[in-house]
């Protein structure tokens, strides 16, 4: 029975920290549609009677879109936008708003102004791959390595197929390094990028979905190798030219991206894709309308009707309650209406591409803005408003909730984080967790589950064991289990990415508190000891000595019945020199300095390049946490000696022990997030 799907956003939650545990078992409820030959069958099962939804007349459509775009400009401040809508085999609307990218004096022209479509590029890649399947040149279920000449597939004994790539189920984690260049000098051939940064494999193919750019980039290279050309040339000859998409390109040169503003782009652009099959296509609103028509059976044809139907069918689902993945596009349901959707974003562009085959409806929208985040917020509001208007949810389609407390509610509570970060064994784990992955907090709320908090909170009512529907709207959650234990969470709007259950010891809030406590403890020594030494020197200069018989007294006066101290060490005796305790404090004090320098270096890399193009000096920066770890070990040894040999006073020994404990906590966190020997990790 079909389930409703998400109509607007992925689950609320702040992505922050994650576990290092690997997923060693296969969720029992994963993948009812893992493999079909030669094409997957249509979704089976009993269906509800479908309610016919009609789009508004063309005049009403334009007025509606004008109003939504105007509100998005007022509320979010983007600089330009383009919208195209196709319906019943015709272009119902193609329109531009605001000004062109990098050219405030030129209004957006829907037929000429190029917009970066980001990850919507993947839809072109999967379409190109389906062309080869349609022509009999590629078996989608054969090992992909049989068709690849330029690169090696990191698949081991269980081979990855094109079908796995198209459904994001080869079991690879995301890698960001090398995906993007910040200038033209950083552009690399696709094969070189794929070989330089292969992903880690955390699960066998066809089992756990994990969205990555690598799979689409690899599929693009497969297309190029089979066709004996480059990916850019293939899509130009086989997709753009037949569809009349004259201004569309997968190339990255400024004169191809923005023909009218090439000079300005060369000087000001700071984002170029090194993986064009995943993120490098640029197109116009009119071009995207032609592409949508081709997929909906109108306009020019680039696939046979059989191949088009096959591409839109379900190839994989992590749970039967979800619409799952087509050949390259996530699917979800709004009431009884099935929608295929792929979003895309770059640094200053945000786009969305939706197909509603039953209604013959296709939509493309893209915004750009120099203010980071403005385009994304505007795009989200547009899609929400459009779907609410033209694909409304009928409550009659919603399944009846189960009564009472959610089944196994206590087991479902907890934190779930995208496998992209949770399973990442490289130094990218923390940046991806903080900046590029989803995290969901699940709590039982009476007879429902609650995710998020405040205005972003959602309640989910149970419709069958381990399956929940958003209360008061569309959207479905499915919990996956293995060996009787809940292991993953998948949301209807994102069937290409599973969220892994995070143990309590990997909870972000706990890690944040530990980092703060450990950092303060370690830093207290680096600050307090030099400050104390300076204060003692100042007192001696003013008064000719400390004179109080305390720890800082250099007169040789007795302290607790022992001989005098020098302020930095134990009682001064022949067999207990002052050098070891002084070295102990110098060693402990170096730890926060080394770690602060490392954090600043890594922060600079993330802020300047987002780890897309790691600088040549990055491996050297990872020497700093290694030195800090060594210093921590030495500090722990000195902490033990301070108690055995009587260094300092009792409060000073307690403080030194706390400094050592704080350093141990910090090093433990570094190890957890793969920041010790980071660039050398697999």
From TrEMBL:
Q: Which GO terms describe its molecular function?
A: hydrolase activity
**Domain Beta-lactamase-related intervals:** 69-378
| Pfam families named in the record | Beta-lactamase (PF00144)
Concerning Gene3D superfamilies, the annotation shows:
DD-peptidase/beta-lactamase superfamily (3.40.710.10)
Give its E.C. classification number: 3.-.-.-
Start-end of Basic and acidic residues biased regions: 34-46
Q: Matching SUPFAM superfamilies, A to Z?
A: beta-lactamase/transpeptidase-like
> Which keywords describe this protein according to UniProt?
Hydrolase, Membrane, Transmembrane, Transmembrane helix
Region feature (Disordered): 31-58, 545-581
PROSITE patterns in UniProt = PROKAR_LIPOPROTEIN, TAT
Please, which domain of life does this record's source organism belong to?
Archaea
Q: What are the transmembrane regions?
A: 513-535, 591-612, 618-640, 652-673
- For this entry, the protein name equals Serine hydrolase domain-containing protein
What organism is this sequence from?
Halobium salinum
